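Morning!

This is the sequence you dropped in the shared folder:
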Amino acid sequence: MAQTGALVFNDSVLHNLTIQTDLGTNWFDTLEQDFAQNFANPSLYPEIYHTCDISWDGISLSNCGFREKGNASNSLATFGRKKPLKISFDEFANQDLDGLKKINLNNFTNDPSLVHDAIALKLFRDAGLSASRTSYTKVWINGEYIGLYIVIENVDKTFLKFQFSSSENDGNLYKTDRGANVPLNWLGPDPQGYMDEGLKLTTNETAGNWTKLISFIDLINNDRSDDFRQKLESAFDVHSYLKVLAIEKCTRSWDSYWGGGNNFYLYEHPDGKIRWIPWDMNETFQDIKIIGGLTSLLDGYLVPTNKFDDRPLLKRIFEIEEYRNEYLDYACGLIQTNFTLHHLGSYILQQHNLVDEAYKTDPNKYNTYGSFERSLTDYNQDAVSLTHSGYVLRINYPGIYPFIQSQREWASEQLGGWDHDCKIEDNTVYNLFIYPNPAASYVNILSDSASDFEYAQFRLYDFTGRLYRKTDYELITGNYFTLPLQEIPSGIYLLIKNSADGRIGRARLVIP
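The structure's back. Tokens below.
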């Protein structure tokens, strides 16, 4: 039997989604009005799905529903008609698409690379954690090409069944609401306080039994007994959460529990333990500062000690030395294995190339195509006004590849501050394969990577140590890189290749 969602979340192909609705040419204005009313007064104006027919790669379904969704991703999309959307296949009929009941379509606000969600969620899944799958699709509504979206797997009972099996998907699932700050402070035994703060029960709403979750919040805030660690182990999957936190810190996922107190699910697994499920990873791989206010929204500590007074879960976990050491060990392993260009480079490039042409012709793209083109290697910057606040943000986007390497270096330094020696540089010196040699106007430097991806810088020295040529770090996607040699005098030179993972290649080059 095929895996649920395997067709929809095939991330090796670019999908096509058409939506046909009887809203006619007013579809966008109708969805905008619905969203604005719901945002202003959700109790009076609940979320409304409008009937539509859809076709996904030629698979047709009638009587589906669609609506706008989002928070900043919606309010920041101030021009064009590409708002984030949720599609519900079973809203008006008992049906699914590829086993899925709902999907989310995100529109790449604050992500010129278009790969933030894809990379971060892949890192969670590669770590064996429960996290959404992704793919990309072009979208048409009533015959109008709206543009390119990233498809995010919905966290619901179908997701839980896929993650935990059919017999283990019936526990309560809680989600932080749009724009909420949910620090998990003790607000008493009444669920209403937590609901007012922005925590929503998304399954088993009719039963509405919050007992287990409130007991957990009580535990992390109020229990000071000697056996607290044992109680926490019984109530919460601490070990998986430590992995989530390490990945969030390395990717700078500031719009999360440790940052804004948002974008996570809590699942009451039938085995008695609450599981943490991360969500909404577009606000990653960036520097973000508030203009005219706080200097930064980022916390520059691998162990977020400055958040302990605001985040009781973090404080109580890191009070326990064994958990702190486990976290530091995992963070070290992460920057030595999965959070590396060797592991991620080819995947990032494949996803980037997959959507290149579609984004070039996207009529409603939020970022320029030029910023997309340079997003893997070069620096980008945006000034963003938050519609529902007085803040203006300066968001800096380092190139994805240098960002990964710089974050690895940062994490290694942070680990050293906790007496964890964690080396990330290979520092292997090896012989480069080059041709022709002797060379006149150019030299080809053969790729030495096991994959189709490299990111490296080249330098050419004479044997007195004088530097004659230096490239920027280059994205190398083929079997070799060509270095031009025009205006280099005759002589014997040392060619150096500095790879982003720390390896150093050398070759003796003769220019006649």
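Headline: The longest strand covers residues 59-68.

More detail when I'm at my desk.
O.
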